[in-house]
Amino acid sequence: MNKYIELMRPKQWIKNFFVFGAIIFSKKFLELDSIAKVVLAFFCFCLISSSVYIMNDIKDLEQDKIHPKKKNRPIASGKVSIKSAIIEMIVLIIVSLSTAFYLNKYLLIILLIYFINNIIYTFKVKHLVLLDVISIAIGFILRVIAGGVVINVELSVWILLCTLFISLFLGFEKRKNELKCLEGDATKHRRILDDYSIKFLDDISNIVCGCTIIFYSLYTFFAYNHKYMMITNIFVIYGLFRYKYLTEIKDLGGSPTEAVLTDTGIIIDVILWGICSAAILLFT
Questions:
Q1: How many helices (H) and strands (E) does the chain have?
Q2: What is the model's pTM?
Q3: 51, 159, 253, 270: least buried by Cβ within 10 Å?
Q4: What are the TM regions of this chain, as residue ranges (predicted)?
Q5: pLDDT, tens digit, for every residue of 172-220?
Q6: Pairwise CA distance, residues 221 & 224, whole Å
Q7: Do 127 and 189 fall into the same domain?
């Protein structure tokens, strides 16, 4: 049973917390009905994203076998057969889409778009320079939109832009880490890496990092009648710079999830950001 849970990559579910963005910033995080709907949406994204991971593992089986870390994944290591993986993937898709249909028809549409986007990514776009990372970023935007749809909240264009650019930042940092770690075997694992260079990725990463800070600042300035949310900018700036430090000095850019879940600095920063944001939204 553990191998099938491992195949779902539950550690990656942290990415689906983007679904909670709308409920936090809309001040609905104390409404039980809204919380229940967002939790169900989170559940749907966990299942559908796990099905995508399984699809990727099947498609990238040969490349994963030569990757220093990915070779230990259930399919690449032989612990789970391709047939069993396909059955698990189908079950996850059915449960996810069925739950979404019950919850909100627009959530169902968003999940279908998310899944189709990932199919296109897996079989085509992942081999197209820049578009590969943009495709991943679209997935994060869809998560945020889904969180707003299920509680009927209109999202600020600034928060969507912020989501886009922080996703691009994480994606380009991951590509850079793959180039550094895999060295001569980089293109054997991921052909698109042949079209990137560490200098180019470093430059573009710096650009999107700056844009993330700008768009989050604009969001905190324009989204509310007060300007107290701008206090939270310091946590966003520190978090981005801390992540940059981890990728450059500690070589943790290959797994954004690992960096977020294991680095004390980022964990404390996220907690403080959450407490500060909640306090401002509740008492102003």
A1: 13, 0
A2: 0.91
A3: 270
A4: 12-29, 35-55, 76-97, 103-121, 128-149, 155-172, 200-222, 266-283
A5: 998 888 887 766 565 556 677 888 888 999 999 999 999 999 999 999 9
A6: 7
A7: no
